[in-house]
Amino acid sequence: MTLKDRIVHEALKLFSLKGYMNTSVEEIIARASTSKGGFYNHFKSKDELFLAVLSEARKMWRHRVLHGLDTVDRPVEKLRRILENYHERYLKDAESIPGGCIFVTLSVELDDQRSDFASELAEGFARTRALLKRLLDQAKDAGELREGLDTDAVSRVLFAGMLGSSVLYGLDRSSESKGCSTRALIEYLDTLTA
Can you give the CATH number for the domain in which 125 is found? Predict the structure, then answer.
């Protein structure tokens, strides 16, 4: 791992635990075992580091949550896989995101503090919900879901449930609480099938 990668990795962990505003450059430098010169050789500012962390967090989310989707044909099964992966492969990653979903942590913190960063996070949330809706629409078109189902409303419920799982994890870091939330979402999805 290069020094730049190590700085991003350690900042990602700290941001997931403490948020952006409560994490100092000095803490990041200490955790990455570097100097101020080492930090500023790679990043002009903490803001520039934030954007690098956000990019890395998005890659990590896609890699973990979308894992194996290309091996599944049916849209409902893809939705189940996303929900399972979110629980098993993403939220359980205490090494990379010890504080839980970094997007939830940062969106709550930055909403009224840094609207520029909050809008970056909101864009990612919108893309995730659009993915869920697209898969629901495909499932409906394929006859996998009940006739007349409002896929927009269902995508909102599933997305809110995923965010809720993250919040519950922040309160109770047990695997059981995360598993219950995910199982409930999958059971809800099952009630919608044709």
Answer: 1.10.357.10
